[in-house]
Amino acid sequence: MHVNLDISKPIEEALRRELGDGLEVATREALAIEAYRRGKLTHGQFAEMLNLTTDEADGFLKERGVYLDVTLQEIQDDVASLRELVSR
Length: 88
Known about the structure:
Elements: H1 9-19, H2 23-37, H3 43-49, H4 54-63, H5 72-87
Helix pairs in contact: 3-4
């Protein structure tokens, strides 16, 4: 899919000076992060949009201060699973 974004020429030039050919990548990343933050993308969709594995997506989000939306029940389930594995 191709998306057009209208911004003023001076802003585009400033961004291109800063980001060069990475402007399109930075734009895609920003869109994916914001959509994920707002709950519009699942974690898997986020990873797919940026062509990352789910583990890479975790790291990518963490580096940018965006953390997974995990419920208390999910954490409790993970703790129970870990305890079971350790006790084996």
